[in-house]
Design brief:
Structural class: alpha/beta
Order of helices and strands: EHEHEHEHEHEHEEHH
Number of strands: 8
Largest sheet: 8 strands, parallel
CATH architecture: 3-Layer(aba) Sandwich
CATH class: Alpha Beta
Number of domains: 1
CATH superfamily: P-loop containing nucleotide triphosphate hydrolases
Number of helices: 8
Strand content: 15-25%
Helix content: 40-55%
Length: 232
Amino acid sequence: MPTIVIASSKGGSGKSTSAILLATALAEHGATVTVIDADINRPLSSWAKHAKLPDTLTVLSDVKETTIIDTVEEAAADSQFVIVDLEGTASLIVGLAISRADLVIIPTQGSQLDAAETAKTVKLVKVQEKSLRLKIPHAILFTRTSSAIRPRTLRAIEAEFRKAGVRVLQTQIHERDAYKAIFSFGRTLSDLDSSQVTNLLAAGENAKEFMVEVVSLFKEEATKPAHGAEAA
């Protein structure tokens, strides 16, 4: 079943938030999901200890370089979706996880500094493609954006990546109090109290749009030549 790796060489890019939003949205729509917390700080594991998780969502944290591949493959055999949240470095465990990905999502904020770090992660994916002689679908996800304004800098960065042939997701994860609250209160979006968190409905719709676009990418990839085809 599909393995989605959330990767970025820069900390604070929104990896863990993106992983939680995607995992819970998929699980709440009936899919079985395993999240592998491969970040040395274990943010998802800490969150999962307090959150009321959907019955179809499992979070695993006991993973290291020597076990990451086996953990991913075992989870993929049991779940409809596997989501791997990685540390914000270009470490061996990151490369190993990417080698097992059916899709790599690269979260980034809309600044030139973040774009430079994002380019490093794209290069890491390309290195894995060349090493393994296969295509690894990957896409950039802009995070902490405004739902009302798309700044010129952000538009320019999007255009640069698209010109370079890198897919950029249409959905962006907007800056929302609700996304901070899921960590602060140890909750899923659906368990947050709308009297305590602003724009909760909009946050939920944003997460659903993200999930729908990711699922559509897998449907699109299914129409293409086999994932194991040799990279050009």
